[in-house]
Amino acid sequence: MNRIKKGDQVIVITGKDKGRQGTVLNIADDKVLVEAVNMAKKHTKPNPMGGVEGGIVDVAMPLSISNVMLFNPMTNKGDRVGFKTLDDGRKVRYFKSNGEVVDV
What we know:
SH3 type barrels; 104 residues; two-stranded antiparallel sheet; mainly beta
């Protein structure tokens, strides 16, 4: 079970986008793709058959998973995540600072 999953709200803790928040779009290996964070310019050729216009497009690039923290809405900060097993046997993630369960 991963500490960060697709669809989580995360905050960037280091790098040029430090302090920015976004939603996780994809996770591959130790990289995470966050919407509207770590944007890069990509030059695309026009493709009339595919309906693609040419030009310069902004594309979100992956970040290392160690550079993001799960966003805790109670404290409005990034927070460390732990795992615990509930009484009914489910394994859930929880915030280390206040003990709130992330997965409901």
